[in-house]
Amino acid sequence: MRLILLLCSLICYGMACPVLAGPLADSLAGELAKQAPEHVLPLDEVQRLDRRLIAPDSLHPGWQRYPLRQLQAIYRYQQECGADNALPAEWLPLLRALCGQASAPPASWFAAHPIYPLGGSSAARWLAGYPTVELDDLLHVRERHDQLGLLGELDDDNLDALLRGERWLLQSGQLWLLADGQWRCYGAGQWQPLAERLGVVLDSRVDGSCQERVGWLCINERPALHWQWLALASSLGCLLLLGWASWQRWRLLRERRIALQMLTHELRTPIMALSGISEELRHDFDRLPPSAQQSVGQLLGSVARLHQLAQASRHYLAAETLEDERVAVSLAEWLTLACERHGATFCLEREMTLALPFYWLDLALDNLLRNASQHGRAPVRVCASWQAGRLILAVSDGGELPNYRLATLLRRGARADGLGLGLAIVRHLLRRLGGRLALSGPPTTFTLTLPCQLWSDTES
């Protein structure tokens, strides 16, 4: 009965524990053997080192080997070179030599006492004040600058694993492998493509699933994507593509709608003027000569149809691309003409000539002034300034709004008063030109901001 229980426990233990090395590790090691490593360290050179010159704990004070009283005495003595009553007898030759009270110990003494009580190698303590090449081989691996100093770049866990006789080490993307009497160091660009080609994954974790364990490393087969996951990913990709296509279609339709309504809004003024002229012609139609009555009749019909079209089209969208052609614009001359059209005044900090997209900017300012004249109260005023590469135009009037939120006014664009529509035109144009529109008050002020340069800067 005991034999059966023992066999069952061994079988269960074998199922629970990972395989120590195996075909995955052997296949990867075989492929790595065909590659030239970045660094090679002969094993016999590593074995010739005292184990204490590899152990990471050797760099810390020897709390377990010496009482605190002696460590404090060593520290005070190396600082002051005073009395040596409490010093360990075995360290008196080095401590007295460091204070100039005795000759330097021979190399054999350093080999017999490789680790200094306060941490680090005895050779490093001596070489700090008395450089000599005879003691370079007695330095700790983290104090060396030769080929063996590469081991000093390993962390504490990997150094402990090396001392335990492990054959695989992994740190910061570098893979160390002991093979054919050499420690071989492979960079990430060497071993990772091989591991990917073999379908294996290396991980330095110590928990979780592990098919093969080599020291602190786990080697697992790369999981293959199941067809259900591929189908799910394909479905998600198709949904995203359809969503993107629908959004693009919605955006295009919206752009076209804005273009039509902007065109309608801008044509309303000349259409109204033509309507007034057509009414005068209609009133005097009977007094026109017969030869002109037919042409005038066609003109009146065309104006009526155009007026109908303008009234029916309530949607607009800015052109998909604006011709942002910059021309030299004198602010004083431009503001004088713009304000005269609407009976407004302006103030200007200083006269200057800027490189501006004149057509679109004049269209935006004209809309703001028209809105202020039609929907606000006198006086209408424009304040212009140029600060930090930006043109700032503030159009204000004496009126007040119940709610100073630009989004609320923009929602009025679908109604017939035209206020929100004109503001929507201005905001859309400014966005396309890299600027912005803001609302503040009272008094009601619309601030137009647009990046621009002095004309002299563009010429240079």
From TrEMBL:
Question: What PROSITE patterns does this protein's entry cite?
Answer: HIS_KIN
EC number annotated for this UniProt entry: 2.7.13.3
Coiled-coil stretches: none
Write out the catalysed reaction. Answer: ATP + protein L-histidine = ADP + protein N-phospho-L-histidine
Its record classes its membrane topology as: Multi-pass membrane protein
EC main group: transferase
* Cellular component terms (Gene Ontology): plasma membrane
Transmembrane stretches in the record are 227-247
Query: InterPro entries attached here?
Result: 2C_sensor_his_kinase (IPR050980), HATPase_C_sf (IPR036890), HATPase_dom (IPR003594), His_kinase_dom (IPR005467), HisK_dim/P_dom (IPR003661), HisK_dim/P_sf (IPR036097), VxrA_SD (IPR021821)
> What SUPFAM superfamilies does the database record attribute to this sequence?
ATPase domain of HSP90 chaperone/DNA topoisomerase II/histidine kinase (SSF55874), Homodimeric domain of signal transducing histidine kinase (SSF47384)
Using the record, list the residue span of the signal peptide; answer none if the entry has no such feature.
1-21
UniProt keyword annotations, A-Z? Cell membrane, Kinase, Membrane, Phosphoprotein, Signal, Transferase, Transmembrane, Transmembrane helix, Two-component regulatory system
Q: Which PANTHER family match?
A: SENSOR PROTEIN CREC (PTHR44936:SF9)
Q: Provide the protein name.
A: histidine kinase
Q: Which organism is it from?
A: Aeromonas sobria
